[in-house]
Design brief:
single chain, 95 residues, mainly alpha, extended, DDE-1 domain-containing protein
Length: 95
């Protein structure tokens, strides 16, 4: 969204040292151009719903102790390398 707090000088130094390429999106285009929103977070929501439903069918109560484990399972199903690559391709950005 172009906010200056997202890319500080310290952050830029860190990414340069770690050989991470920063990709900045054009202002006011994130509603259609954010690759992970377009292609990954929607499947994550569906995967999370499936995890919650599966847990409830087994009478497993979701607590602060097992929430991250369930979320991790959903994340692993939603954020596959092919899914992420496809999301970038779909928005016209190639990683």
């Amino acid at each position: 969204d172009g906010h200056n707090s997202h890319c500080t000088y310290r952050f830029c130094l860190y990414t340069e040292a770690a050989m991470i390429i920063i990709l900045c999106l054009v202002a006011h285009t994130t509603h259609w151009a954010q690759p992970l929103d377009v292609g990954c977070f929607r499947p994550l929501g569906s995967a999370w719903k499936k995890e919650v439903m599966a847990a409830s069918r087994q009478f497993i109560r979701i607590t602060k102790y097992n929430l991250l484990e369930l979320y991790d399972q959903a994340r692993k199903r939603a954020f596959l390398p092919d899914t992420v690559t496809s999301a970038f391709r779909h928005t016209g950005i190639w990683p």
